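Aim 2 progress update. The chain analyzed this quarter is reproduced below.
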Amino acid sequence: MENTNAEDIHAALSWIIEILNRHHIPYQIVGGLAAQAYGATRPLVDIDLYAPLEKAEGVLDEIRPYVTRELMPHLSASWDLVYMALNYQGQDIEIGDTTPTPRFFNHRDGHWELQAIDHSRSNVVNIYGVDANIMPKDELLSYKAMLAREVDAIDLKQITDADGN
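Predicted structure tokens:
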């Protein structure tokens, strides 16, 4: 479900980032929110991020009341990963675990790709009034081009348009 309420997005984003930072868990925002950080304007469906959850027991304990999908494997036409879902004040959040390296399906070339998240390459961008670690723009563009879903094509066009290209 799309959320266009900036206050809900701000509340959820600041909440999850504060918890991750307090527990010293690196993270990287990906997906639609990362696309918005670089100029996309389509409404946000959820806050997608990756974090190594192997040593995140404190985080998992703290977010447990908001869990809508337990941390477990997921395999679809586009992803092979371990993730969990939360809902904080009406905003959906999905956290992919980078402890086992997630994969996504490259629909452009027809094969699975490892999604190795390098937290040290994150760009800190202020979005919805929160400083957040965002997937580097070049990685996001490449990732979305390979996923090749309709929403990815929209994001790619909007980011390119925002760049003036």
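The domain at 6-158 is CATH 3.30.460.40 (Beta Polymerase; domain 2). The CA atoms of residues 25 and 56 lie 7 Å apart. These observations will guide the mutagenesis experiments scheduled for the next reporting period.
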